[in-house]
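Hi X.,

You mentioned you wanted examples for the new student's onboarding notes, showing what a folding record looks like when two proteins sit in one file. Here is a clean example. The first protein comes first, with its sequence line followed by its structure tokens.
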Amino acid sequence: MKEFKHFINGEYVASASGKTFENRCPVDNSLIGPVHEAGEAEVDAAVRAAKAALKGPWGKLTQAQRTELLNKVADRINERFDEFLEAECLDTGKPRSIASHIDIPRGAANFKAFSETLANHPTEGFRMDTPDGKGALNVGHRTPKGVIAVISPWNLPLLLMTFKVGPALACGNTVVVKPSEETPATTTLLGEVMNECGVPAGVFNVVHGFGPNSAGEFLTTHKDVAAITFTGETRTGEAIMRAASVGLRNISMECGGKNPGLVFADCDIEKAVEGTMRSAFVNCGQVCLGTERVYVERPIFEKFLSRMKEEVAKLKLGRPEDKDANFGPLVSLEHREKVKYYYDLAREEGATVEIGGGIPDMGAELNDGAWIEPTIWTGLSDDARVIREEIFGPCCHIRPFDTEEEVIELANDTDYGLACAIWTENSARAVRVAEQMEVGLAWVNSWFLRDLRTSFGGAKQSGIGREGGVHGLEFYTETKNICIKL
């Protein structure tokens, strides 16, 4: 059995209150170990340690020295790859084949990618005229924002946490991370790596707990937190915005999505099926960028639907260590209740269940886990709740369309605006449609293809702000203008 303590000022610390909660494996609901729940005292200690570190050795490092340290962190994660892989798979239940190619290596790479990108980005400079004719120089200068609160989700725990911690540290900030209560393991383990690599105490801190009246609320309302970066559902984002308004702290939020896939008749259908399968079902559909609404041009609708059903039937459910398995459980029994509610609701709203739609029989050893069937529906009306609300499970609805104008209107008819995938071999149409999509990320003939130098974030209720590449500079630093009279 493992025990998950807070990591504060370079040390693992138990909660003074003694309060803990259970971390259970979604594969079979077995107990992984107790997690200490932070109270106000632990959160305050973490924030104070982070604030002190800004003026300590960390604040005196050069950019090159910080980059060297963060590169060591990336290398050490890869050296301890198997430990991180085991921890991630225990928490999430996802197949090792997926976590070993996405979660761990890309989580480690975030430290190198962001430190190198941000270290080499120039600031602005302007010469201006003055009445005396001698002029002045204006020079842009960036400084760390301060203590950054990082609220990270459970679907890609290491990857999405380091996507925020990497640039925050590269810019010279310190962090207090609250990982999801469902997936505490890899964030906790990263504390060991920070110590092994010589990252000064207080630079990276971890507190565990829940949202209201727990670690999340105490962290986001702490007066010494300079900015808050969050990935998660829109409702939680709204609560964090309210907390951040006190003291006018900056926020960056990547929230929910109800992402469309647009499949035109001139697409490469096998490419479109492969991409849509991944976007709807990888990580058991628990990807904020995933596709839950699929619109297919009528001439290829039946063929596309048939091919999707064939591919879904091939998905192999199994334990993370099963080399043949490519489909794991949902993250928790609680989340399965939510997804199953929508499966039942789809039937009530008149959906045709093309495949799936229930809870599979996994046998005596696994039936206590959070398993659910990958599912495809057709026949729902455009105002059905299953079409309007984010499910965050392995499911999609496939609907025919007739014209480009129609599908653009259907795809944009949502409160969300995170991402979309467009499948067409017509380059003019690809650009034309992408430019009209009300989203932060538009993929053409691909999905989840990410260049870390580009912007990342959503429109409408899918978020506020952009991170990634130089866009992170705007969030993780304060820019001051230095005006020098000549």
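Then the second protein repeats the pattern, sequence line and then tokens:
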Amino acid sequence: MDKRYLIYDELEETRIDKYLSQELDLSRNSAQILIKNNNVLVNGKEIKANYNLKNGDKIEISIPDPVNTDIIPENIPLDIYYEDSDVIVINKPSGMVVHPAVGNTTGTLVNALMYHCHDLSAINGVIRAGIVHRIDKDTSGLLVACKNDFAHQSLSEQFFNKTVKRKYYAICYGEINHNLGVINAPIGRDLQNRQSMAVVDNGKKAITHFKVLERFKGFTLIELVLETGRTHQIRVHMKYIGHPLLGDPLYGPKNVVGDHGQYLHAKILGFDHPRTSEFLEFDSPLPDYFEEKLKELRNELKNE
């Protein structure tokens, strides 16, 4: 059972089924079923789908585990940065899906973890065993998975409270002329294409901070820090400000550069160990294809 806690902090009242649909990325009907089955409490009490949330309301959501027992452990090599009896930190390659989905039940990080670890946290069910956060298929970099429910609960709370340290490196189109920036724009499903996300008026709050690390001819290397964790957040926000990520097949130009997807790498990950409370921080090098592209861009700039 996945437990989530939210505090409604908007001044305007809104129906709880509508709010949960947006906040949890569920259909309105799925949100109503959760409420009908008493999986949602407001201020400790059961409510109905037409309940109007008020500023300060405390919401407790219990999301039932997905039913799926067909995930097969697979002997897939893992680039392990840290491992103990509670957590495992992986440097995920570009091209690897984090958890299985309909039509894609093999070759994922969960398949590999189930083979390597044998025991993983069960809070999110078999299909997301051990996974407390994720990164996109074509995004490379660091990810932590949990081996038991105690660790999973602790890491979930750290992600919810925004105390986990995460820094990404990316190459984007265009030369950003200021050194620091903050993108504060709500993200939701693209009204024109349900397979992608976009900045939309009724979307979820999304904030991305970025810093310019290096400028090239027509491109910029940036470091990004997420204040929120929305689906495709970095990719959507960078497109929104006119600097889509290099190689992004969904949000970038039609003529995609490279065959690795977007040049986006989850470089730094830091968190408090769930059992010892020691702060652990990891830093992974950029993938070879990423470094090769940077070398190419530097040479182009040098030869101008």
